[in-house]
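[agent] plan:
  1. take the single chain provided in the ticket
  2. run structure prediction with default settings
  3. attach structure tokens to the ticket
  4. add a short note for the reviewer (M.T.)
[agent] executing step 1
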Amino acid sequence: MTCCGKHHGVDTEPRAFAIADFWEEAENIRTFVFHGTLHSKPGQFCMLWIPGCDEKPFSIARDYDGEIWLTICKVGPATEKLFTLKKGDKIGLRGAFGHGFTILEKIPPAPFKKGEEQKQNVVLVGGGYGTAPLHFTGKTHAENGSDVTMIIGARSENLLIWDKKSEKSGFRTLIATNDGSVGVEGFTTHVLEKLISTEKIDLVQTCGPEKMMKAIAEMCLEKNVPCEVSIERFMKCGFGVCGQCVTETGEKMCQIGPCVSAQKAMSFSDFGNYHRGPEGQKVSW
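[agent] step 2 finished; step 3 output follows
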């Protein structure tokens, strides 16, 4: 669904972008590169239109230095069609939409303490392909002077993504896999719980499977650690017209989210339990 022109200065009609490059991140997970910018902020999303097929929302993994990166998992007809496209083929992008992650302000130097730079401690927790947009978030935090820890989870080593990029960006990178094939055997929540018990953490932000994010939100609320989660819902227009992404409380997720506080997320009865499909039917996570 599109609407002519712009909404609050954001393109609501697709602009044509040629696929400049792509590569495999893991099985059925591919990063697509486009030249240009959507002027997005970390945590926002865009709508990707595949001509003759469909349009779907995707989180933005990178939007700087003249490149847009989208890391996409092949999960249905639209993404299956996208994966058949080649370099030079054109798609449509519009956005960026939604409310992104909070970026902590840089702490000014303390008076009379030259050389003692104060840094805030940010922990980002990604599960599966939800890890990709957190790298954009982490880069922005680091530029603002925060120390960044990236916790990356996957079922097994062959499904792990963005760990090397995270290390290359200078983030402390901690890995958890369900089968223990690399990193800690277990879940990202186990790694986060240990960090919370041993360090002062100023902010936790997470993107990935909703059950994982709910567990993280509950943990952070219990430990009094500020936390934000990125909630995925069925979105068609991206800017509050169609109402497809309305929450059980009547709020439009494309406008108040996708990134919301842990407190806000826990106020949704569907969070971590179910979401609604294209016909409004309840679909369990």
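[agent] step 4 note for reviewer: The two ends are 26 Å apart (CA to CA).
[agent] ticket updated
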